Amino acid sequence: AQSVSQHNHHVILSEAASLELGCNYSYGGTVNLFWYVQYPGQHLQLLLKYFSGDPLVKGIKGFEAEFIKSKFSFNLRKPSVQWSDTAEYFCAVTGRGSQGNLIFGKGTKLSVKP
Amino acid sequence: EPEVTQTPSHQVTQMGQEVILRCVPISNHLYFYWYRQILGQKVEFLVSFYNNEISEKSEIFDDQFSVERPDGSNFTLKIRSTKLEDSAMYFCASSVDRGAGELFFGEGSRLTVL
User: Fold this and answer.
1) Can you give the residue ranges of every domain in chain B?
2) Interval A4-40: pLDDT, tens
3) Which end of chain B has fewer CB within 10 Å, C or N?
4) What residues in B contact A45, CB-CB < 8 Å?
5) Which CATH number fits domain B19-95: 3.10.450.50, 2.60.40.10, 1.10.565.10, 1.10.3720.10?
6) DSSP assignment of B35-82, as one string?
7) Which among B33, B50, B106 is the nearest to A43, CB-wise?
8) Which residues of B touch A4 (CB under 8 A)?
9) A-chain residues within 8 Å CB-CB of B56?
10) Does domain A3-113 have CATH number 2.40.160.210?
C-alpha cells in the first residue's frame, strides 16, 4: 500500500540546534517527493520538492532534504533552527503521472524554544 | 501574493444536511483539488479536477460527494447528506501544472457534523 511515515510526532529544539525530520515512503514506481510546512494559523505551503536529478534539494528558509532511493527516505534537515521555524511539517509523495494525489505523512510538529 | 481562499472557515451542521464548501483557486491555475484532514489523522486526497471534470478521486470520494466549478472562479465541494465521520478540515488546492507541480493550499474549512 502507498504510504508515508514520519517518525517523529513532536520535536522540541532550542534555537540554533540542528534539525532532521525523518520521512519514509512506500510507493511503487517513480516518485515525486515534497515537504510542506504549516505555520500556526496558516495554510500548507511548499518547502521543497524532489522530482529528479541531484538527490539533495534545497528549499526555502535554509531547509534541505536528501532523497535516498535505497532507503525510500526523504529526510528534512536544517543546520540551525530559529524560533520562527515553529510549525508542523508534512512529508508527501506522489507518483509520476499522478493527477495531484499527494499522499501525506501524519506530520511532525516542531517547537523551537527561544 | 496570490492565494487560494476558502469559505466558510468553520461550518457546523446537523447530520443528514447538505453542505457546500467553496474555494476560489488562484486565477491562472488549471488544476483543482480537495483534501481533508480528520482531527489527529493524515491529510487525505479526495479529488482532483481539470477541464471541468474529475481527473482522479479517492475511495473516500463516494456518491455523497460532488465537485463543481459553477463559474470562472469558484470551485465547490458538496456533501449531499453529511455523516458524523465527515467532520474534518477540508483543504482546497490549485496548481498550474498537474500533480507533479506545486500545490497551493487554502487555509481550510472546518466542518463539524453534529
Assistant:
1) 19-95
2) 999 899 999 999 999 999 999 998 888 899 999 999 9
3) N
4) 104-105
5) 2.60.40.10
6) EEE-TTS-EEEEEEEETTEEEEE-TT--TTEEEE--SSS-EEEEESS-
7) B106
8) 42
9) 98-101
10) no
